[in-house]
Amino acid sequence: MTDSAQDLSPQTTTDGPLAHMVYVLRSNPVTLLAFAMFLVLIVAALFGPSLVAYDPLASNASRALQPPSWDHLFGTDNLGRDVFSRVIVATRLDLAISIAAVALSFVIGSVLGAIAGYWGGWLDAVLNRLFDTIMAFPLFVLAMGIVAALGNTVENIVYATAVINIPFYARLVRAEVNIRRDSGFALAAKLSGNSDLRVLALHIYPNALPPMMVQVSLNLGWAILNAAGLSFIGMGVRPPTAEWGIMVAEGANFIVSGEWWLAFFPGFALMFAVFTFNLLGDGLRDMVDPRQRT
Amino acid sequence: MLPDRLLTIGLRVAQALPVIFGVIVVSFILTRALPGDPAVYFAGAAADEASIAEVRSALGLDKSLPAQFWIYLTDLASGDLGQSISTGQSVASDLATRLPASLELTLISLVLSCSIAIPLGILAATRPGSAVDHLCRVLVTAGVSLPTFFTGVVLIYVFYYLLGIAPSPLGRLDFVYIEPDQVTGFYLIDAAIAGDWETWTGSLKQLVLPAITLALFTLAPLARMTRAAMLSALSSDYVRTARAAGLTEEKVLSTYAFRNALLPVVTTLGMVFSFTLGANVLVEKVFAWPGIGSYAVEALVVSDYAAVQGFVLAMALLFVALNLVIDLTYTMIDPRIGFQTK
Description:
The structure holds two protein chains of two kinds.
Chain A: H1 3-6, H2 17-27, H3 29-51, H4 83-119, H5 121-135, H6 139-150, H7 154-180, H8 184-191, H9 196-204, H10 209-232, H11 244-255, H12 261-288
Chain B: H1 2-32, H2 38-43, H3 49-59, H4 65-77, H5 91-126, H6 131-144, H7 148-162, H8 187-194, H9 197-234, H10 237-244, H11 249-286, H12 292-301, H13 305-333, H14 335-340
Helix pairs in contact in B: 1-13, 5-6, 5-9, 5-11, 6-9, 7-9, 7-11, 8-9, 9-11, 10-11, 11-12, 11-13, 12-13
């Protein structure tokens, strides 16, 4: 399976992260595929609205509930809106929600985890109890509660998704920082006059980045599922906005009468996105930490 | 030996207490922040300012937050979770009638996914590179990417609409059957106790699709962990020694490798249970299943704060209890663990 990939013109081997990446990608066509799928998502998210032929919100009662055809690749919904346009346009919103949520939990988790891991003591104990409490909830249920409490908006979906993911990042950073707190290079940096903050931020913390990247990629998939799940039960994004979770929810009402395309295509897009991020995460893990390969 | 173990168990239970307190605080804060004024709901549509204020003080809502929290705690201690606005029943009784529906679904789906995932993972680990191994890998990667609500919808389309084998996805029992007398609240058990096999098959039919939906979702992490744990156990020294000593392959696999591989699998099972409790909400909505998940969704829509609070609390306590059970199971699977804890 990998033969054709390896027969490509032999490059001069340079030792470096890029060369390593090229090497891993060559022997792992699945990761290459994941990158290609990721590119598709990015293009759909950036240029989606200008790529589609129909307005995702324009209804047309005379063309309601039409099965997929050349005019309407994914058919039309009960209001005559073009499902293909809606699925493509929704990419931007779904990706934006998950990326914003993951970025938030990445930053907050890094700061809290670094503090807990570097200074330890009562701060560490308090933060750990806090994370224990968050993790004691079934995460989706907690997210539901947070969105309900803060109000039904897109921003609150982002906050809720960020909160439930913070413990994963914080714990990871805490562990990585903690084992390096008293290591030689950290002590040397301090001896040469760097402040604690500088040593922590510039010398110790960067070591946590590779495993964090893997976590980010896997997390993006969860975040999308989480956001779409919340919309599916009617929280957060509201109709008529095009969003995959809502579209599946709306389409589910027509499944029992056989209009499958309403729910199928947005659901498939959702699956495609999550699958991409999971593949990407696995691929990144192979690059970052070959020992963890399964 | 026995007091030692009891001490370990006692310590572990004590460790769960701060978490339980934290859970209560979080669910209290969350629901106080819910939009809408419960006093207005309880006072009714025709209420004027004075009667709303009266209801407010009757509910203790005019007091400070710490005082309200104290009232909440004392109520909780006597098993009072408050009154649901939408159903008019006490939240405790609402949860009690709906919890069995959710548990029946969750447990059946977990049993289903374990009985597929664990043998699959073991087979994949004992025959690396074989067809089973590849099947396992495909299932694992595809499985984690499946949104449960979407799987449910697809299953309904295929088995209800196209093939017509599944019953309509509307709740626990088709209306042609009579609900069995409530003993445990699990329809399968209640119907079996009553000897009503028609109802039993009827409720089993309703269960199949939602259970498969949830099982597909939980299959992936379980199979993945079983495979990885078995692989590392099989490459260990003690398995090599056992083989060298001439033990049968069956004995090596079941007693030596599997028992050691079981620990991470049980850990994963705990995580999976948490996912399942969350996913339940979605699956219950798809299949109109009258469990606590759909109860919570209905409650959220009308800002029914006591009901939401009760639901969040029940879920979290269930999960804390489960983690406790899992930790205690560890000491049974691997006696060494009990003595390591401080």
